[in-house]
């Protein structure tokens, strides 16, 4: 949630910042703003509620001259959605401006103290306090020391980018704690941002900051300082993502592109190194899996596979883990987070102090990687759509690689490609259910996590209420909700769960449900109003990969038919960085 971009170089800062803000839209936001130091050494701040395209156009962001600046997309946590609460925020003099992601937990105490010294506040945000605090500290010490002292006084989470009109060296002051911030090292220009895609137009070389790091950026380089103020070295990384990977590639929406991309990226995910993770798993008795949202569904699949090998394993929703689990030093904790910045997951990892930890994530240098003993990367490339698609499939791939040899998983790309060919059929199904108010997804065995994920995708981007159940649970209350015409989506491959699930399909059909099945069984097809065919001869262990693709497409097409932008569902964000 929220996005930051900063630029210092010889180019037009306002253009680089606006470009970056457009590539950070996937993080979720309600307002946008920019601050640039003009050639006359005057800070120009332009901001308002609304989308990047409309606000930047209306306020003519790119007309501002100058070579250093910062920008922000805000997702409200303190104060209403309005211009005053949009970032960047300034101090009393208008000389210091900054953007902030995260939550300053001690802002009320700091605000009261600053107000007593005469500071006047223009917003209801916690973030504005930081600008005033830096102003106060700069009264008695140089800017860099004032910034370091300011950061040391903050409690909570933050990624901060600040600059001052009084700074003759034209520098950006940045810091991070529990919120992502990455330096982009270009030629004659330096950038920083919440995520790599915001900077890809300008560089392929990046420096992820570690927890508690601070840094100074100028056009010709950067200096990094650890939390104690000592100068520090951090490893540079190079990524091979091209700009088209962060664009729609001719598709009307990022989500559709990313669903299609799965047939390619699945092979990248299968190339991930899982050897060290498997050693830790083999050496562990009890295994706790922590995750949230889509990643939790992947975690359930992991728990099923671990249990099938005789291990004691359980998947937990990360936000509840500290309240119900009692890990000891013999417990292995596996954290799954696409962004590596999911606040609930990070908090659960910190709770599991003393445990060995594995992280499964898509983002190099993310916070979760610093908290883990071993990291497995998804290698899925950037995912822009808020609703996770290819990263879920990549999570399944690396999880499966822990249990099955690569040769058995080799057909996955072709299997996903075959399911993508049903796109037109699924669009026709979407036309039949786009006007419904409720939907139910049913499955059994290891197909249940796929039903959960299919239901989540469906509800989050169509705004149609949906639920998913193990098929046997229908008769324990849910059948009372099955009325004529209600869609029931049955995941019914020809595996050991089919005989029982067929009975559940008949129970729903007897009550007038509209049955959509995804199956390779003739009897199920007879009981269904519409069926999507699974490829004949599919290896039963690979069914989950075949089942998820049509569910993603169904959610996508239904969303579009209902006039919803599937890339930006209301009230949701890509990276959930607050608890």
Give a short overview.
Helix content is 34%, strand content 24%. By secondary structure, the protein is an alpha/beta fold.
Could you please describe the fold and organization of this structure?
- The protein has 579 residues and is an alpha/beta fold.
- It folds into three domains: 3-244, Aminohydrolase, N-terminal nucleophile (Ntn) domain (Glutamine Phosphoribosylpyrophosphate, subunit 1, domain 1, 4-Layer Sandwich); 248-410, 3-Layer(aba) Sandwich (Rossmann fold), CATH 3.40.50.10490; 419-564, Glucose-6-phosphate isomerase like protein, domain 1 (Rossmann fold).
- Helix content is 34%, strand content 24%.
- It is built from 19 helices and 25 strands.
- An eight-stranded antiparallel sheet has the order 3-2-4-1-10-9-11-15, covered by helices on one side.
- A hairpin with a 3-residue loop joins strand 9 and strand 10.
- Helix 8 (294-308) runs antiparallel to helix 16 and helix 14 packs parallel to helix 19.
- It is globular and about 80 Å long.
- The model has no long low-confidence stretch (mean pLDDT 93).
CATH topology of the largest domain: Glutamine Phosphoribosylpyrophosphate, subunit 1, domain 1
SSE-based structural type:
alpha/beta
Strand content: 15-25%
CATH homology-level superfamily of the largest domain: Aminohydrolase, N-terminal nucleophile (Ntn) domain
Number of strands: 25
Largest sheet: 8 strands, antiparallel
Overall pLDDT level: 93
Total individual domains: 3
Q: Which oligomeric form is depicted? A: single chain
């Amino acid at each position: 949630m929220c996005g930051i971009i900063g630029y210092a170089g010889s180019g037009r800062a306002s253009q680089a910042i606006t470009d970056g803000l457009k590539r950070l839209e996937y993080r979720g936001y309600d307002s946008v703003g920019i601050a640039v130091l003009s050639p006359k050494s005057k800070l120009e701040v332009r901001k308002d509620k609304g989308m990047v395209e409309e606000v930047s156009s209306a306020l003519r962001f790119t007309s501002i001259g100058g070579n250093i600046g910062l920008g922000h997309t805000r997702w409200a946590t303190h104060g209403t959605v309005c211009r005053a609460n949009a970032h960047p925020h300034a101090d009393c003099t208008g000389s210091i401006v900054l953007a902030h992601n995260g939550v300053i937990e001690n802002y009320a105490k700091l605000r009261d103290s600053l107000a007593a010294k005469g500071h006047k506040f223009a917003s209801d945000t916690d973030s504005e306090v930081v600008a005033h605090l830096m102003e106060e500290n700069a009264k008695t010490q140089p800017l860099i020391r004032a910034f370091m002292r300011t950061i040391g006084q903050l409690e909570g989470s933050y990624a901060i980018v600040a600059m001052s009109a009084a700074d003759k060296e034209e520098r950006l002051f940045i810091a991070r704690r529990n919120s992502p911030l990455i330096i982009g090292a270009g030629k004659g220009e330096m950038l920083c941002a919440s995520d790599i895609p915001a900077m890809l137009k300008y560089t392929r070389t990046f420096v992820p900051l570690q927890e508690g790091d601070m840094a100074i950026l100028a056009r010709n380089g950067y200096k990094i300082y650890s939390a104690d103020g000592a100068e520090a070295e951090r490893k540079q990384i190079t990524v091979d993502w091209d700009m088209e990977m962060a664009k729609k590639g001719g598709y009307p929406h990022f989500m559709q592109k990313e669903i299609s991309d799965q047939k390619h990226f699945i092979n990248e995910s299968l190339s991930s190194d899982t050897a060290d993770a498997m050693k830790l798993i083999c050496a562990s008795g009890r295994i706790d899996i922590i995750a949230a949202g889509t990643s939790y569904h992947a975690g359930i699949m992991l728990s099923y596979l671990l249990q099938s090998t005789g291990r004691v394993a359980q998947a937990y929703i990360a936000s509840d883990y500290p309240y119900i689990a009692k890990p000891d030093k013999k417990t292995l904790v596996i954290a799954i987070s696409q962004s590596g910045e999911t606040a609930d997951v990070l908090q659960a990892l910190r709770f599991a102090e003393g445990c060995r930890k594995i992280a499964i994530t898509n983002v190099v240098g993310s916070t979760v990687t610093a908290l883990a003993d071993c990291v497995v990367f998804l290698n899925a490339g950037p995912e822009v759509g808020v609703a996770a698609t290819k990263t879920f499939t990549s999570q399944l791939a690396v999880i499966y690689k822990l249990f099955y040899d690569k040769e058995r998983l080799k057909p996955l790309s072709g299997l996903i490609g075959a399911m993508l060919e049903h796109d037109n059929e699924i669009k026709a199904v979407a036309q039949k259910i786009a006007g419904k108010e409720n939907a139910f997804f049913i499955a059994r065995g290891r197909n249940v996590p796929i039903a959960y994920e299919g239901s989540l995708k469906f509800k989050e981007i169509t705004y149609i209420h949906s639920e998913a159940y193990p098929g046997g649970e229908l008769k324990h209350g849910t059948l009372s909700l099955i009325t004529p015409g209600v869609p029931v989506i049955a995941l019914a491959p020809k595996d050991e769960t089919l005989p029982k699930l067929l009975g559940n399909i008949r129970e729903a059909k007897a009550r007038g449900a509209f049955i959509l099945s995804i199956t390779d069984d003739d009897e199920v097809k007879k009981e269904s109003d519409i069926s999507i065919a699974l490829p004949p001869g599919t290896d039963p262990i690979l069914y989950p990969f075949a089942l998820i693709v049509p569910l993603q497409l169904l959610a996508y097409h239904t969303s579009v038919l209902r006039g919803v932008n599937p890339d930006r569902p209301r009230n949701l964000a890509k990276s959930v960085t607050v608890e």
